[in-house]
Design a protein that fits this description.
This protein is 37% helix and 16% strand. It is an alpha/beta fold. The chain has two domains: 139 residues, Aspartate Aminotransferase, domain 1; 251 residues, Aspartate Aminotransferase, domain 2 (3-Layer(aba) Sandwich). Strands 4-10-9-8-7-5-6 form a seven-stranded mixed beta sheet, with helices on both faces. The protein has a four-stranded antiparallel beta sheet with strand order 13-14-17-16, covered by helices on one side. Strands 1-2 form a two-stranded antiparallel sheet. Strand 5, helix 4 and strand 6 form a beta-alpha-beta unit.
């Protein structure tokens, strides 16, 4: 059997050729070449990830940690090897700081309930920004209901950037946690998270960074960022759905109680008391998404075989090209024009609902997202019910951009 831990990433090549690494991108939609521009919702999977998942289920499918037979030992090695891969990828101090979860949403809820709930009291404050995804709003609202704490929101400007001065003025001795997106899913704004974390540090405030939209586009070094928690989802970085990561400082994980009980998060159990497992296992109750962790590791290997600096530079070129082309179209309003952006274009069309734009573009084989993007406060700020959103990834090309804009031009002609 080939080792589950020795998958070699494909050799570096010009990024436009990477489209060929993704089987789904070879299909047609409505008789047209598929142009997939919904990457902020989920990314497609390279062949290496698909093969890693297939190999697990075909060759060494077994439960982990508790078995002494060969398949269990191989599955355990692959699962814990995936943890080591993630730790290296984000420059964690230790593999023990990597907790596997279902995704960013679960990671944030874990922090809210295990870190926040025991520490917060009535009158304490949690600080977020106006840019946040619902997953970085609702868990804190629930926590406030449970504890009597208050949710504070730092404002944004008309470009879709956080007002850093206003954020700093909201930091106070009552602030018990600051939680902010590294990159906005709705607008593509890249927040100055190192600067924000430094401000919080001066006030003694712990920081959680929602990295769901960052890890596939930017290098992430949790030690350099100096945050306390970092969360991301596997499916945003070309890995499987249902797997994600919470990174946290080991000392914090040691202090935090488990938030779910069950198998594998224990050392001993009696009817009188339970002794919990060491970190990170005390936060991984039950059989985990073993295949998902293995697939995530394969996705990280794939991305690192290219290099995130190269990916970011390439995608920025696509963003510039797409922005220039979109500005040629009458009646199109770009929502979110931050000076530092990931390759996301949110837009509205005068007189048309975003869903209609999405449906009509689909007839041309172009997949974009439409709606509020789980960021309703952002939409409210800009006075819209929703937007259409084209979000790019490493496998997109200038040809994709041109097909998208040319198709949108045809849609505008039809609507007029």
């Amino acid at each position: 059997m080939s080792s589950p831990l020795t998958a070699t990433p494909p050799p570096a090549a010009d990024l436009p050729a990477r489209r060929n690494d993704f089987p789904i991108l070879q299909r047609q939609v409505h008789g047209r070449r598929l142009v997939y521009l919904d990457n902020a919702a989920t990314t497609q999977k390279p062949q290496t990830v698909i093969e890693a998942l297939d190999r697990y289920y075909r060759e060494y499918n077994a439960n982990i940690h508790r078995g002494v037979h060969t398949l269990s030992e191989e599955a355990t090695e692959a699962y814990e090897g995936a943890r080591a891969t993630v730790a290296r990828f984000i420059n964690a101090s230790s593999e023990r700081e990597i907790v596997f979860v279902r995704g960013t949403t679960e990671a944030i809820n874990l922090v809210a309930q295990s870190f926040g709930r025991p520490r917060l009291a009535a009158g304490d404050e949690i600080l977020i920004t106006h840019l946040e995804h619902h997953s970085n709003i609702v868990p804190w609202q629930l926590l406030c209901e449970q504890t009597g704490a208050v949710l504070k929101v730092a404002p944004i400007n008309e470009r879709g950037e956080v007002e850093i001065g206003a954020l700093e003025r909201l930091l106070s001795p009552r602030t018990k946690l600051l939680s902010v997106a590294h990159v906005s899913n709705a607008l593509g704004t890249i927040n100055p998270v190192a600067e924000i974390t430094a401000l919080a540090r001066r006030h003694g405030v712990p920081v959680l960074l929602d990295g769901a939209q960052a890890v596939a586009h930017l290098p992430v070094d949790v030690q350099a960022l100096d945050c306390d928690f970092y969360a991301f989802s596997g499916h945003k970085i070309f890995g499987p759905t249902g797997i994600g990561v919470l990174w946290a400082r080991e000392a914090l994980l040691e202090e935090m109680p488990p938030w779910q009980g069950g198998g594998d998060m224990i050392r001993t159990v009696s009817f009188d008391q339970t002794e919990y497992n060491h970190v990170p296992h005390k936060f991984e109750a039950g059989t985990p998404h073993i295949a998902g962790a293995i697939g995530l590791a394969a996705a990280i290997d794939y991305v690192q075989g290219i290099g995130l600096e190269a990916i970011g530079a390439y995608e920025h070129g696509l963003l510039e090209h797409a922005t220039a082309r979109m500005q040629e179209l009458e009646g199109v309003r770009l929502i979110g024009t931050a000076r530092h952006k990931a390759a996301v274009l949110s837009f509205t069309v005068e007189g048309a609902h975003p869903n209609d734009i999405g449906l009509l573009l689909d007839q041309h084989g172009v997949a974009v997202r439409s709606g509020h993007h789980c960021a309703m406060p952002v939409m409210e700020f800009f006075g819209v019910s929703g937007t259409a959103r084209a979000s790019m990834a490493l496998y997109n090309t200038r040809e994709d951009v041109d097909i998208f804009v040319d198709s949108l031009a045809k849609v505008l002609e039809l609507l007029r």
